[in-house]
Amino acid sequence: MPDHDGDAVVSVPAAADDTGAGPRRADRLGADERRFRTYTLTVLASGIAAAVAVSLLWLPFRAGAGLWWIGPVLAVSFLLAEQLGINVDVRSGISWTISFTEIPLVIGFFVAPFEVVLAAHLLAGISTLVVRRVSGRVLYNAGAFLLEITSAFAVAGLVQRIMGSTTMTWPAALAGTLTAPLASTLLALAAVRVLRRRMRVGTALRLTGRILVVGFVNASVGLSGYLVIAGATHAWPLVLAVFLGLSALYWAYSDLLREQRDMEALSDVSLMVARSGQQAAARPASRTDDLAGGVNVSEWATIAERIKDQLSAARVVLRLRLDQTAPLRTVVAGDPLSSTTTASDDPLVRLPSSHVRHFRITEASSEVAGALLERGAQEALVVPLRSANQLLGVVEAHDRLSRWRGFGKYDVQLLGTMASHLATALDNRRLLATLRHDAYHDPLTGLLNRPGFRQVVREPVRDRTDIAVLRVDLDVFSTVSDALGYVWADRMVIAAGRRIRDALGPDVPLARLEGASFAALIVGSQGPWVHETAERLRAELSEPYPVDRLTVEANAMVGYAVPCASESPSDEGSAETVDVDTLLQRADVAVRATRGGEEVRGYVPSMGQIFLRRFQMVTQFRQAIEEGQVSVHYQPKISLPSRQVLGVEALVRWQHPEFGRLDPDEFVPAVEAAGLVGVLTGFVLEQALIRVRKWMDEGLRMSVAVNLSVRSLADRDFPGRVEAALKRFEVPPELLTFELTESGVMADPQKALPILRELHALGIVLAVDDFGTGYSSLAYLRQLPVDEVKIDKSFVLGMGTDLGDLAVVRSIVELGHSLGLTVVAEGVEEDIARDQLEAMGCDVAQGYLISRPLAEDRLEAWLQARTARSPGRHTEMVLTLLT
Questions:
Q1: What is the pLDDT of residues 437-473, one digit of tens each?
Q2: Minimal CA–CA distance to 339: which of 319, 359, 356, 364?
Q3: CATH code matching the domain that covers 8-231, chosen among 2.30.110.10, 1.10.1380.10, 1.10.1760.20, 1.20.1050.10
Q4: Domain 450-603 classified CATH 3.30.70.640?
C-alpha cells in the first residue's frame, strides 16, 4: 500500500486464498479485516475531531486576496513530493517511503493558514491513492492525513506560545513538521498491532528513528531554503542545487536499503525451502511430498506470501508441476483468484525462456490482456521455474501496491533471482526426494524394499498387537533364471508383486525383500483369518504365469508371524517386546518350515530353535576344528576302462557333541554365509595334502579333489596360499584337483576367471562339479580353464529308468571328449549304470557302488582289502580295484 510523508503503512492480505489452508486461516483473516475496519473508523473520527478543534482554536495567519494562489501551489507541491517518493520495503506488509512532503509542509507554516495546508495535503494524498489504484484503504489514509496536519499545527502552535511569539518562528515550524511523520508512524505501528502482525520492539524503534532523521533533514532543507529565498531573492538556484543533491543521496541510500532487503528476502526463501526439505525428510514419505520435491503445498504457500511481501504485490501465484503427467497446481498468496485453472495455452504460462516477463494491460496484446483480465490484474511479472529444459512451475506477481509506477527493474531482477533460487531448490528437493524414494523402494517392482518396509511398519508394530507379518517365497525364481535368464525371472517377480498387491489391497504395506521373496503387514488380524489370507494368497500366486509367449508354472510358500501372547508393543518398560526384524525373522523361519510339506505355515516358538542351532554352529566352528570334531572323509574314484583307483574326493564331516553328526548341506552354507569358508577350505586342503604326502611316502600316486567355494574364487590371495601349501608338503600340483560349480564361477566371472587361470597355471587340475544343473552350455565351458567335468548324480541315478537322463549323460560325455576333457560320473550305485557309462566311454566313476565316503583309517582298510598293489613306473605303486 502507498504511504506518505515518510510514513510506514500496512498492506492487509485478503481474507481467503486458494492454497487449501482451510477455514481456520480464512476466519483469522476475516477477523483481522473487521478489526482493521474498526480501527479505520476510529482514526477517521479522531482526525475530523482534531481538525475541527485546531481550526477553531488556532488561526495565526490571515491571508490576503492577493495570495489566493498559495493553496493550489501547496497542493501541487504536496502532490509532486508524493510522486517523487523513494519506496523501501521494511517488513511483511509494511513499507517506508522516503518522500519530500516535509518541505512543502514546513513552508506552509509560513505562507498559508491551517485550513489551506490541510486541504492541500488531503487533496494531494487522496489523489495519489487514486493514481496508484489503492482504493481499499482511502478512509484510513484520509484519517491519517487529518491527524498528521492537525498534530503538526498543534505542536507548532504550542511551541510558538511557549516562545511568546505572535508570528511563526522556525523552531515552531520545525517541531510541527517533525510531528507529522511521527504521528503517521505511530498510527502505522498501531495498525500492525491491530492486524496482529509481528514486529520486534527494536525494529519499530529503528524505523521510527530513521523516519525522524529523514523528516528532520527534509524539514531543515525546506526551512533553510525558505529563509534563504525570503532573505535573498536570487538564492533559489542554490536551494534547488541542495534539493537535487539531497534527492541523489536519498536515491543512493534507498538502493542500499533495497539491496539489503532483497538479500534478506533471498536468504529467507532459501531457508524456507531448506527447512521444509529437512522436515519432509524427517516425516514418513508421501506421494505428494515426493513429487513436490519434499515440500508440501502449505509450505509453498508460506514461500509465496514471503515473495508477495517483498515485492509489495497484491498477489503472488505459484503454479507447481507436482507430477510430469499432472496439470499445474496453484498456490496463491494475497487477493484470491476467481479461477485457479490454467489452460495449457495460457499466454502467461506458456513462456519460451527462463527470463522474467513484464506484462501491462495497457501495452499487452489482446491475448495477454485477456489473460490479465481473467486474473483481475492490471500488470504482472511472470517467470518460469526451469531445470534442464524441464518446466517445474511458474511464478506470477500481480499489481505492485507500494509504487505508483508499478513494478520496476529492481522488482524484475529480484523476482528473476528468486525464481532461479526456487528452481534450484525445487530441483534439489525433487532429487533428494527421488533418492529418498529409491532408498526405500525396490527399483524393479516399485514396492518397498527391506529398509522401507521397516520404516513404514515400525509404528503399527510398536503400537498394536493385532498385526501379522507375511513372508512369501516363489520357489521357481532360480529355475527360471537358470533356464531363461534373469530378464524373464524379473518379469515373473513383477507379475507376482502385482498379484500380491491385488490380493491384499492398495493400503497394505508390501515389500520385495530379495529375489522372489516378499513381505506384507496385515493390521487388524486374528490367527484364523491370517491363515485364510495366507492360503488365498498362496493359491493366487501358484497360478501359471503367462510371460510373453510362455506360460511358467510356479509354486509359492507363505509363512507368517504374529506377536506371541506374552509379548506387547515395544514401549519402554515392557517385559517382552516385539519389533519388525523379529517378526520378519520368524516369518522367514515359518517359510523355511514349509519345505517339509505344508505350503502355508504360521510361526511357533519351537521353530526358533532352527536359528539358535545355526548360530551355535557358526560360533562353535573354529573351536570344533581345534578340538577335532571336524574331520575329512574320502570317497574313492576309479578309472572305468582299467578299474584303477585314481584318487579320492575330500569331503568334510562334523560330529557335534550336542547335535550329533551334522549334514554338510546344513552347516557348510551357514559357515559360508558367516565368512568362515576360508577356514573350512584351508582345513580340508591341509588334511588332503597331508594324506597325499603319506601316500607318496608309501609309493602310491593318488590325487585328491577338494571342493571350492564361490568366496575362494573371489580371494586374490588364494592361489598364493595354495602354492605355498603345495611346496610345504612337497606335493606335485597335478595330484590336487579343485572342484567348482558352474553357477559359482559364472556368478562373478570377472573375479573368478583370473583366479582359475592362476590355479591352472600352477598345474592344478580343475573340474566342473554338478555339470548339467547350472548354465550347461558349450559357451560357458569354453571360457573356463578346466580339465574335467563331473556329471551330476541326479542324471546318473535316473539313467537306468529315464531315457531322457540317459540321453543327457551320453551328450555330456560326448561334449566333454570333444573339448578334450576328462568326464567323471558321480552317483554310480548299480552295476548297470557302471556298464552303461563304460560303454559310452566315460572316463572315471564315483559312487556308492565303489565306496561310500570313508574316514582316513577306514579308507586305508578299504584300500588294503579291495585293491591289489602292482609295481608301476618310477618305482611308484598303482591300485587296481578287485572285481
A1: 888 999 888 899 999 998 888 888 877 778 889 999 8
A2: 319
A3: 1.10.1760.20
A4: no
